[in-house]
Amino acid sequence: MSDRYEIRFAGSGGQGVILAAVVIGEAAAIFEGLNAVQSQAYGPEARGGKSKSEVVISRGEIDYPKATSPDLQIILNQTSCDEFLPETVQGGIVIVDDTYVSTVPESEAEVFMLPIVKTAREKIGRELVTNMVALGVTARVLEILDLMKPDSVKKAILARVPKGTEEMNEKAFHEGYELMKEKK
Amino acid sequence: MPRIEFWQGNVSLAYGAIAAGCRFFGGYPITPSSEIAEVMSEELPRVNGRFIQMEDEIAGIAATIGGSVAGYKAMTATSGPGFSLKQENLGLAYMAEIPIVVVDVMRGGPSTGLPTSIAQQDVMQARWGTHGDHATIAYAPSSVQECYEVAIKAFNMAERFRQPVLIMSDEVLGHMREKVVVPEAGDLTLIDRKKPACSPDDFMAYKPDPEDNLPPMASFGDGYRWHITGLTHNEWGFPTNCATEIAFKSARLMDKVNVYRDEIVEYETESVEDAEMIVVAYGSVARTALSAVRQARARNIKVGYFRPVTLWPFPDREIEKLSEKAGKLIVPELNFGQMIHEVERAVHGKAGIIQMSLVNGELFQPSEILGKIEEVA
Fold it and tell me: pLDDT averaged over chain B?
């Protein structure tokens, strides 16, 4: 079980949290040779205030496919933060967006408040790429933990985004990576 | 080199079907199975296959039967409400001995129930949903890799035994993405239906070959004429009231599974050798069960794991054998008790059976099954 690493992206519908988890899963399975399982909540709970998507990565076999106590959470709005942050594993890492999250509940996780949405808006000019900035942040965390090379995440992004948008998405990814690198 | 993909279970199942040689899909989209139809609609035209979205679920299976009669390996996919609607034509395919594959990605019921939530409430319907005695072959995959593999096995069994084969997937498995190692086409073992060796004039559509008791199947358009009916029929395919012919046909339908049972049954075990109790689970629930069993083993509890891969035929003899040593069987299901009846039948009272039911649209968490293991130990 210790080999298992659980990541959860949470936010509101439209912030691209599902795609973010899919990209990490593809980076792990296709470009890193790891095992990976990605799942998401469908139905009423996926609409409105809180949408979540999870990816479990491991060098070994993955039995239970969902996150039970995430090692890393990337949270992009307040309702998700209130509900999901306390589920972080003890000593885990939580990244919180500073535009849509104002109060962070007490926890034993290491919490970083980062301008993810602001970076997408101001440095790229489109809030649409919030998830790509978040993926850059995630890639840096996974690099520090020696779980995945940032280049694998970048490759997975480029294999997935529509033609003609590669440059914008790659820049957003890079900005996110730098955001986290300044902190850790 | 095998290719690595990161697919949803439904997508994997669809690509597995195409690798198996499926070239016809008749269906009607329904959550949580729609991705299967979606992939088939994109991919079948690329391999000279045919995809038809029909006007409803009933027409979906009817077209699938027609596709098979025309000589294509054919499939349809649905979920609970559609599975109910398909039962009448499913019976026709059993009686007329038409090979088709039917996928049910299980969601909560009865009726339209819970379109986006997991359940395992169609297990008994897979066996007895259509009326009359018939032999059922039903697979329950539990990983995205296995979705690909059982699609191939299902077609092989359908073609070999000339009958419908079911794949009972579920919402969590259908929608989750997981790493798949896609085998090379050349590495696959594929079975095609046996064609008649005789001339069209001598052809009797339901006359079995003596060596395997299975009749060869001609395609419409091949020049072999045959009659298809849901009425009990003789070797020419015409309705009969003759007791001898009725008995022969009825027994032959059952013998497909009775005689070849050991070649069809599949299951998976872990840590059963010294197990004092065993968790028996299938589909997505088996993933939770395996996690719980491994955690319990780490706490020195002698617990094992048994997963039926074929729900039908049920691996009853194998479970009975294990139950002679393991005194307790824990059976978690996302229903109020369906496969548990088969487990009870299998063990003949030799082991105590502990039921776990969850019917709230969610998958068991490992802690829930682990808790039960610790309570029972």
Answer: 97
Q: Among residues B295, B300, B302, which one has the least CA distance to residue B278? A: B302
| ipTM value > 0.85 | yes
In 3D, which of B30, B31, B3, B32 has the Cα closest to residue B15? B3
In degrees and rounded to multiples of 5, residue B188 shows phi and psi of -85, 145
Among A66, A68, A153, A157, the residue to mutate for chain B (most B Cβ within 10 A): A66
For the record, the structure tokens of A167 come out as: 């440059």
- Locate tokens 């032959």: which residue? B252
Is B113 an 8 Å CB contact of chain A?
A: no
Domain B3-184 belongs to what topology? Rossmann fold (3.40.50)
Q: What is the mean pLDDT of residues B214-237?
A: 97
Q: Is B366–A68 a contact, with Cβ atoms under 8 angstroms apart?
A: yes
- Percentage of residues of chain A with pLDDT beyond 70: 95
What is this structure's pTM? Answer: 0.96
Q: Closest Cα of chain B to A34: distance in Å?
A: 8
For B269-376, CATH number out of 3.40.50.150, 3.40.50.720, 3.20.20.70, 3.40.50.920 equals 3.40.50.920
- Going by C-alpha positions, the residue among B282, B283, B279, B341 that lies closest to residue B124 is B341
User: What is the mean pLDDT of the segment spanning B265-278?
Assistant: 98
- Of the ranges A45-59, A109-123, A159-173, B52-66, which one carries the lowest mean pLDDT score? A45-59
Interchain CB distance below 8 Å, A42 and B116: yes
DSSP state of B239: B
Tokens 């079948």, residue? B44
Measured CA to CA, the distance from residue A158 to residue A166 in angstroms comes to 6
